[in-house]
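We modelled the chain as a single entity of 650 amino acids. Its sequence is:
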Amino acid sequence: MGTQTTFPQLLLQHAAQRPQAAAMREKEYGIWQSLSWGDLAVMVEHLAAGLHEAGMKRGDHMAVVGANRPRLYATMLAVQSLGGVPIPLYQDAAAPECVFPISNAEVRFAFAEDQEQVDKLLEVREQCPQLTHIYFDDPRGLRNYDQPGLDSMDSLQAAGKAFAMANPAFFKAEVAKIAPTDVGAMFFTSGTTGNPKGVVHTHDSLLNRARAGAVFDQLTSDEDVLAYMPPAWIGQNIFSYAQWLSCGYVVNCPESSATSNIDLKEIGPTYYFAPPRVFEGMLTSVMIRMEDASALKRRVFHYFMGVAKRVGPALMDGATVSGADRALYALGNLLIYGPLRNTLGLSRVRVAYTAGEAIGPDLFTFYRSIGINLKQLYGSTETAVFVCLQPDHQARADTVGVPCEGVEIKVAGNGEILVKSPGLLKEYYKNPAATAEVLTADGWYHTSDAGFIDAHGHLKIIDRVKDVGRIQGGAFDGAMFAPKYVENKLKFFQHIKEVVAYGDGREKVCVLINIDFDAVGNWAERRNLPYAGYTDLAQKPEVYALIKECVEQVNADLSADALLAGSQISRFLVLHKELDADDGELTRTNKVRRGFIAEKYQVLVDALYQGKSSQFIETVVKFEDGRSGSVSATLRIEDTQTFAPVKAAA
């Protein structure tokens, strides 16, 4: 395969070389249906012809809103075949959140998966009059809709089929016109601050990185991938779109987000990608089930997990392990690790990646110790994901790997990481000022992340440059404070779901905590501790004691880290509600909006720093059906023990 190509050209190559091979599988009504490369190419040709007839021209933008579905992928390919630009949007975003991207990118065409997405697009139409064509995939509930420009994908495909039969050379001629340097797709950043920005990528910037990753991990057309993350997230796009077309492996679409764990077990992917919170959720569910097992089973489990922790990572890294340990691990594999990998749906995984957020070291070690090749990568929307990757035998919890093919890295004076790579964005759409801020004239991209290259040539990320602060006054005066680092250490505990840490410019670190309702609820039930919902459970003295133990364990860990001993937590409280993207507290990719939360809960932050032992708060919340209500509670505030920094041995 030539190094420079485009998405539609790759589709045609697979269709010509292996027309019968499965390209995608979709689970419908509990049964897996396959779509071959040959059939996919025909579907894309018909959709492209239909869109052409509907007036789509080169450079036009089409919004794509929905979960991973064959027709969604086919639509993206059809748009690209005409020289248009697909823009995937988050399917769980509320209607007002879609207004900016649709207006900013002058979107005329949209693909909507179902009635829910159609309603959303019709709602924003008043503010976005240029949105003239909306096509839906699933017709349920839409029969009586009579809106101008609203049509089904079925009729678009049928119209395209008639056009393609009358003009058989049209499709291939269109595909031949597209150059690798043409714009291939646009992704809107999650916008932790201000409006999201449209990140413009060419066919080549996306495919170049997809290939670099594929070469690094020796991916072939034999891989099975589960596409279950939002298509609007570039990580999902690289793993199940760009690399899918590069390698020609099979992409499997779960029936729904509710069944994705069952579907994961049925498919048994060989190449798997998930942000840390998915791996956290899996571990939490395993631990909850273990707590309910018999005393003997629990003892066996904990004994062999101890063996795994001691021996597993060394085995994964190809290090020497004694014969006795090897035998013990093999027995553990038979009794515990094998069945556990199977329960998780990860028994066939050859390569698993996590990215997007830093992963807790204990969580990372857990998966590697039971024989899952979990690794970390570093990248972003602007870099088309692959900047650093961890080699198979060098996966460490505290680094994000080595620069992959074609990437150069340097560290600026303020600790910021700068990247040069063939995968860099072309620009932020219609935003030259923002583009100039991140891209230097000589091609270096400012990542906004603080970090350094360690002695082994691995990149270590500490936090966002703007978030790294200093403690002022108190016992740790002048010490470095890295909020994300502290938050992630706490989130490793199965009972803690979200954390927001404060401390920059203050004399100590204080945190707001969200408990994991399932894990803590299960823990409370086993102790016959009654509770009436989240707010009540969160304020139980027993729950506070449980969380305090976690916080003090993190403090003990931090005291051993010369750089971050000053980030130990002095006080904490457990929030009365779960942080939610619908309430503006998290981004759509579930990143904490620390500044927004500080303003919204200022009375709580003040109470933490003023030494109060409790604080009343009332908060307006949005329910799933769009109604608003309020939650109020008096929150307890606890002090925790901090430890003197451990002096490293000379």
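As a brief sanity check on the tokenised model: The first strand starts at residue 22 and ends at 28. The chain has a mean pLDDT of 93.
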